[in-house]
Design goal:
Oligomer: homodimer
Pfam families (chains A, B): Glyoxalase_4
Number of helices of chain A: 3
Radius of gyration of chain A: 15 Å
Number of strands of chain A: 9
CATH architecture of chain A: Roll
CATH topology of chain A: 2,3-Dihydroxybiphenyl 1,2-Dioxygenase, domain 1
Helix content of chain A: 10-25%
EC number (chains A, B): 5.1.99.1
Enzyme class (chains A, B): isomerase
Distance between the termini of chain A: 12 Å
Structural class of chain A: alpha+beta
Order of helices and strands of chain A: EHEEEEHEHEEE
Domain VOC (chains A, B): 4-134
Strand content of chain A: 35-45%
GO molecular function, one term (chains A, B): methylmalonyl-CoA epimerase activity
CATH superfamily of chain A: 2,3-Dihydroxybiphenyl 1,2-Dioxygenase, domain 1
């Protein structure tokens, strides 16, 4: 069911500092910062040959990553995003196996303009999983 | 400098259970389990079209992931591994920028039979980074 690893998302307390790390220390190619107020984050993508690292900095008071950073102030891997061909079929298969889909199970439009769902970390070895319709 | 994301390593308390999650719930293709006593882990690879997820279960009393699981008993993302063309050149560049290479800076032979180095998570937004010579 899951296809490509679309991205690894890393929550960071300081996006400028993180960009310097990935650009100047690790020598990677970066996108420009993009503020996504409706998602409560500002993002920069680290563009690797086979996938992307998504650096996420909280934006606004209700950012979904603020609680993560309260627990891990230095930052850390926030979620892994896998591509699926059909997000509703994926959701139904997951629910049939007993896995928990976050929210009411209705895909929302994610940061890349595509339908996404998040799965409960307790059902995936402590890893928050995002599925994105490719 | 960094090239492909070679793998995302996830520490898990129960490799059989994790394999069931990735195979039966997420529908991915898995390798056979491989015990690596010299690295203190048993691994299963989740083979995605563009990269791999490396599931790691502790093996033996001195496993490097036992401490991680003591803090995060459900498991979680343990490290990200990026490919580099020349690991000694990468190391020298990292040291020149002030980043900390773990150990004495001498690459060791990693789980895939290639030279690897690990970088200090405090210098990389809370993420343990492995570099592997491709």
């Amino acid at each position: 069911m899951i296809g490509r690893l679309n991205h690894v998302a890393i929550a960071v307390p300081d996006l400028e500092a993180a960009a310097r790390t990935y650009r100047d220390v690790l020598g990677a190619r970066l996108s420009e910062p993009l503020a996504l107020p409706e998602h409560g984050v500002t993002t920069i993508f680290v563009e690797l040959p086979n996938t992307k690292i998504e650096l996420l900095e909280p934006l606004g008071p209700d950012s979904p990553i603020a609680r993560f950073l309260a627990r891990s102030p230095e930052g850390g891997v926030h979620h892994l995003c896998y591509e699926v061909a059909d997000i509703l079929a994926a959701r139904d298969r997951l629910i049939a196996t007993g896995a928990r889909v976050l929210g009411d199970g209705t895909p929302r439009i994610g940061a890349h303009g595509k339908p996404v769902l998040f799965l409960h970390p307790k059902d995936f070895q402590g890893t928050l999983v995002e599925l994105e319709e490719a």
